[in-house]
């Protein structure tokens, strides 16, 4: 399986330097959608080196995504490698009903969650589905926290945000991570999480609200509840 036999490492990635420098550097001349489809078809025809290129293209995003769930660096490497191996084995059945990257993200998230459950670290979270949540669109973005005024708080602000992220239920954390850190659309997130777009909007709104509340409470000293109410059953 080529690169899959190598240990995933943040400094020495799965896919080390490739002859295809356009993929290695993320050249904008390549259409991600077309390139993914072409590579997937090559893998399905038995070209394993094509999967190495897919790993090269997405390894850092998958590493970052998994690190939102798993903190230990060695475990992150193991989970990332397991996710790519699962994707490789499942590719023959990939029909292209969704974009390759959303399919891969779903595998990575499920692999990370299964890893946590296997170690009894966090029970599956519950959530309230909201089908029509267009009004949540007006909620402040997590990126709004990173304005010039807030930048003065530097590392302290970053630590507060990360702490608040860790306390979010898995479904909220996944949704806001895919939106704010990976830049996925609401539709793509719905595809990854296999839920309605309205539910995605609800989760992102509640995640942003909880993080914003924690920042105001710990950084700016705003009056707030003693704890965050993240999910109302």
UniProtKB/TrEMBL annotation:
Alphabetical UniProt keywords: DNA-binding, Nucleotidyltransferase, Sigma factor, Transcription, Transcription regulation, Transferase
Listed PANTHER family: ECF RNA POLYMERASE SIGMA-E FACTOR (PTHR43133:SF53), RNA POLYMERASE ECF-TYPE SIGMA FACTO (PTHR43133)
One record GO biological process: DNA-templated transcription initiation
Name used for this protein in its record: RNA polymerase sigma factor
Gene3D superfamilies: 1.10.1740.10, Winged helix-like DNA-binding domain superfamily/Winged helix DNA-binding domain
Domain RNA polymerase sigma factor 70 region 4 type: 160-210
Keyword Iron-sulfur belongs to the record: no
Gene Ontology MF annotations: DNA binding; nucleotidyltransferase activity; sigma factor activity
UniProt domain RNA polymerase sigma-70 region: residue ranges: 54-122
InterPro entries in the record: RNA_pol_sigma-70-like, RNA_pol_sigma-70_dom, RNA_pol_sigma70_ECF_CS, RNA_pol_sigma70_r2, RNA_pol_sigma70_r4_t2, RNA_pol_sigma70_RpoE, RNA_pol_sigma_r2, RNA_pol_sigma_r3/r4-like
Region (Disordered): 1-36
